Amino acid sequence: SIFSYVGSFIEEIGHGWLMVTLTKSPLLVALMTTAATVPAFALMVPAGLLADRFDRRKLLMASQALAAAVALVLAAATAGGLVSPGVILLACAGLGVAGAMSAPSWHTLVTELVPREATAEAVAYNSIAFNLARAVGPAIGGLILGALGPVWAFSINALSFFAIIEVLRRY
């Protein structure tokens, strides 16, 4: 999970850098957060219903595949010179949809992976992983953007989703 969390923070830094590079509009920069948050807000309850009724592992694999596809499309659009503020906003929204669809399954998966007496520790470790990624992910993202550019930031994030898919496939 920490690899995926770091990848997501790297991509967020890439979104911001690319948007500011393409436009100086503070509104468009702010809309990136809105584009990612609105789907999460709108889809969290339906996603929870799906997580209760269907195989959580398969739902997670599907949502991670969607997120990987979005990251790869953004990387390809950026590499091909086809990226625009609208494309970035669509990517943010796509990642918001994928995140909303994965969140309920992701948060309940811990109880399926560890014995009941280790649940509190597992939840704490997951929180530590997220907070560690939140601390180092943007810094790593800045280094990657400076050295390699946004295509690599988006590609690394896609790779992080494929890593989660592989772990889930083996689970």
What does this structure look like?
With 171 residues, the chain is mostly helical. The chain has six helices and no strands. The chain has helices at residues 2-22, 26-53, 56-79, 85-113, 119-147, 150-170. Helix 1 runs parallel beside helix 5 (119-147) and helix 3 (56-79) runs antiparallel to helix 6. The longest helix has 29 residues, at 85-113. The radius of gyration is 16 Å and the shape is globular.
* Overall mean pLDDT: 91
Q: Please, how many helices?
A: 6
Through-space gap between termini: 14 Å
Overall form = globular
How can the largest sheet be summarized?
Answer: none
Q: If you compute it from the alpha carbons, what radius of gyration comes out, rounded to the nearest whole angstrom?
A: 16 Å
| Secondary structure: number of strands | 0
Share of β-strand residues: under 5%
Helix content: over 70%
The helix/strand class is: mainly alpha
Order of helices and strands: HHHHHH
Write the layout of secondary structure elements.
Layout: H1 2-22, H2 26-53, H3 56-79, H4 85-113, H5 119-147, H6 150-170
Helix pairs in contact: 1-2, 1-5, 1-6, 2-4, 3-4, 3-6
Relevant terms:
mainly alpha, 89% helix, single chain, 6 helices, 171 residues
Summarize the structure.
By secondary structure, the chain is mostly helical.
